[in-house]
Model the fold of this input.
Amino acid sequence: NTQLCSDSTCGLCGIIRTSFDLKFYKGKTGWGRFGCGLYTSATSSKSDSYTSNKKTSQYKAMLLSKVIVGNGYKLTNNSTQLTGPPAGYHSVLGEPDTAGALNYDELVVYDNDAIRPAYLIVY
Done:
């Protein structure tokens, strides 16, 4: 099917229609590693772990997005209390480190205008 669905709770179709919106932040795991933000990763297997289908399908989908990083603040450990990047920074870059808590890279922005969906990948 190449049409967007009409289900108002479908996050994928909602993002494609109107882009990302922090008001819908839920924290799938019950918490945000870097607080309430819009999370992305260059590692597709990391992103895949957050995909789910509401209806049975042999396919999954994820978005490839354009993100404005600006001056990124690098972290290697959780910082769940963040509500934005520290003063002077525009985003948070979670970087894996042998001594840190991160297994995969993460990029978090805290402004809806810093991210736009660019491509839909169906696999």
Remarks:
- The helical segments are 11-18, 44-48.
